[in-house]
Amino acid sequence: MTEQLTVSVLGTGIMGAAMARNLARAGHTVRAWNRTRAKAEPLTADGVRVVDTPAEAVDGADVVLTMLHDGPAALDVMREAAPALRAGAAWVQSTTAGIEALGDLAAFARAHDLVFFDAPVLGTRQPAEAGQLTVLAAGPPAGRDAVAPVLDAVGARTVWTGEDGGAGSATRLKLVANCWVIAATAAAGEALALAQSLDVDPNAFLELIAGGPLDMAYLRAKTGLILDDRLSPAQFAVTTAAKDARLIVEAGRANGVRLDVAAASADRLERAAAQGHGDEDMAAAYFASFDKNA
Description:
By secondary structure, the chain is an alpha/beta fold. It has helices at 14-25, 37-40, 54-58, 71-81, 99-111, 125-129, 141-154, 169-197, 202-209, 217-227, 238-254, 260-277, and strands at residues 6-10, 29-33, 49-50, 63-66, 90-93, 115-118, 121-122, 133-138, 155-162. The strands form 2 sheets. Strands 3-2-1-4-5-6 form a 6-stranded parallel β-sheet, with helices on both faces. A 3-stranded mixed β-sheet has the order 7-8-9.
């Protein structure tokens, strides 16, 4: 039988809420905190205890799981939780924090005697809700058994990338994967926008490439969201994708690589957010093509 743990989930957006539900369904005791409590309240129907402060959430927890907007947000929340953190507890840090911020998070873990796991995830709303995420994880082998029940509850597969969570091997792999995801989404949106401007039926394009080397399920998924006006609720929101795109650009710049497509994609996503599409699926970057002031 799976060991039953007390798990604190800090951040209950698209991904964090789904992870909290799956942890509760797996039989773990789950306490959740979100900056806006009302957004977390629906979790009570799934047996999750929603609390008012990060400290209340982590008090006595075996595992703390963070799924917040970015690295600085994760650090701020953990600082709020610090008085109640239990020495020796595991910290599964699943926020896409970026390489620079990860060092600060790992330093916080060392200062508070936490067993730190760099553990971003691949997947969007649907696989998150189904507990089918892919977890990219780095952390000490001696502590992996303690967090395995948590990773198994939220994901279908865990890919171990290293033994030192603070070294950021999992985060680096996540940035590479997201670089491809963001570029593919931008290309899909631009192809549809060009089709519209040239009075070409988008379905004619999709039929043209069907079954060939240019066809792929991801293209059809994202174009389908646009063509069928299913951009809400978001699978992966525009504002989050824009943040990730900037982290990718910064990581490349810091390591001597110029990432023009990622930089342009970040601009498109930020433009779409400014147009009012920030909470929609990242495919809504499509609308940035029609910004006359760009």
